[in-house]
Amino acid sequence: MLTEKRYLVLEDGTVYEGYRFGGDRTAEGELVFNTSMTGAQEIITDLSYTDQIITFSYPLIGNTGVNTEDNETLLPSARGVVVREACSEPSNFRASESLDSFLKRHDIPGISGVDTRSITRKIRSGGVMKAVMTDEENHEELVELLQTASFRTDQVKRVSTKSPYISTGPGNRVVLIDYGKKENIVRSLNALGCDVTVVPYNTSAADILRMRPDGVMLSNGPGNPEDVEAGIKTVKNLIGKVPLFGICLGHQLIGLACGAKTFKMKFGHRGSNHPVMNLKTTKVEITAQNHGFAIDGDSLASTGLEITHTALNDKTVEGIRHVKHPVFSVQYHPEASAGPHDSEYLFGEFVKMMEIEKEANNA
Ligand SMILES: NC(=O)CC[C@H](N)C(=O)O
């Protein structure tokens, strides 16, 4: 039974009172919400949540506990976790610990016993905002501090791999640029036989091309894509030289590299059931999403890019391709984890693209 008080203090002065669980520290960050009913472990270990406090709108979190197989990274960097109820006695044959113990081990504070649906409604109407999770009872100064605090811009640098490494496979050679990648991108490529070399976010195009890859994959990652200047430059210099496939932040970087614009959304898309239309087939895919920025569709004219997928909820751009070069990307997550597998086929399309290019180059 949790009894010790903890508070979630929002930039607009609202205070939610709840109970302390997980790590024991004060933590500030951007307060966002995720509507997934399952997959809390994958969500919390997704590095795209770096510096963010995740509110789960679904009311019971952690009932299957945490296991050793479903981590998207071994060093999660979300700032905090907000739940209505944190299950203290998980039941699942794979569970190795509770959510509370997992968060304690990673020093990520949590607050439970708050009305997460009301927080979600607040963010939907007011937009994402800064918040702090604290055990202090006096909040006036904290609100003032929050209102003047500015966000860091170095998230990708902090979470990217420091040196290259290989996850071997017998097939196509893929260089995966790590902006804060989800492990399931590596697993999905390996499952199709790809040999994956993971490289740091600031690796140059020349260094990548020297590895003679059949294709380059641009990963998901935290923060504002405009802050990842090294990434934009590398992508610019790779387009037309090697097949490219981008996911989420990687997709935004392709847009920026071609001259399109990105913008910060009011409250983003975070959940496991976002409907997206594939404009070529008019088929609807139910997708896993986690993004707060998006490519501005109106800025795509004369970039050489065209829209391939759109979000059915708000008509934002969800997928693009280059009309001349073998380059495509999606704003959502074909690697799922957590979420549905409708768009897993995109990894297959990337492999096909690499095969076609190889054949064309050998002809
Ligand atoms: N999952 C991601 O790659 C997110 C991309 C970017 N940080 C955004 O919030 O839009």
From TrEMBL:
Keywords: Amino-acid biosynthesis, Arginine biosynthesis, ATP-binding, Glutamine amidotransferase, Ligase, Nucleotide-binding, Pyrimidine biosynthesis
Active site: C248, H333, E335
Enzyme class: ligase
Gene encoding the protein: carA
Region (CPSase): 1-173
Protein name (database record): Carbamoyl phosphate synthase small chain
Source superkingdom: Bacteria
PROSITE patterns hit by this protein: GATASE_TYPE_1
The reaction(s) this protein catalyses: hydrogencarbonate + L-glutamine + 2 ATP + H2O = carbamoyl phosphate + L-glutamate + 2 ADP + phosphate + 2 H(+); L-glutamine + H2O = L-glutamate + NH4(+)
The keyword Ribonucleoprotein is assigned to this record: no
Biological-process GO terms, alphabetical: 'de novo' pyrimidine nucleobase biosynthetic process; 'de novo' UMP biosynthetic process; glutamine metabolic process; L-arginine biosynthetic process
GO molecular function: ATP binding; carbamoyl-phosphate synthase (glutamine-hydrolyzing) activity
Main function: Small subunit of the glutamine-dependent carbamoyl phosphate synthetase (CPSase). CPSase catalyzes the formation of carbamoyl phosphate from the ammonia moiety of glutamine, carbonate, and phosphate donated by ATP, constituting the first step of 2 biosynthetic pathways, one leading to arginine and/or urea and the other to pyrimidine nucleotides. The small subunit (glutamine amidotransferase) binds and cleaves glutamine to supply the large subunit with the substrate ammonia.
Pathway the protein takes part in: Pyrimidine metabolism; UMP biosynthesis via de novo pathway; (S)-dihydroorotate from bicarbonate: step 1/3; Amino-acid biosynthesis; L-arginine biosynthesis; carbamoyl phosphate from bicarbonate: step 1/1
Residues that span the membrane, as ranges: none
Tagged with keyword Transcription regulation: no
PANTHER family, sorted: CARBAMOYL-PHOSPHATE SYNTHASE SMALL CHAIN (PTHR43418:SF7), MULTIFUNCTIONAL TRYPTOPHAN BIOSYNTHESIS PROTEIN-RELATED (PTHR43418)
Residue span, Carbamoyl-phosphate synthase small subunit N-terminal domain: 4-134
Annotated binding of L-glutamine, by residue: S48, G221, G223, L249, Q252, N290, G292, F293
Assembly and binders: Composed of two chains; the small (or glutamine) chain promotes the hydrolysis of glutamine to ammonia, which is used by the large (or ammonia) chain to synthesize carbamoyl phosphate. Tetramer of heterodimers (alpha,beta)4.
Enzyme Commission number, as recorded: 6.3.5.5
Family: Belongs to the CarA family.
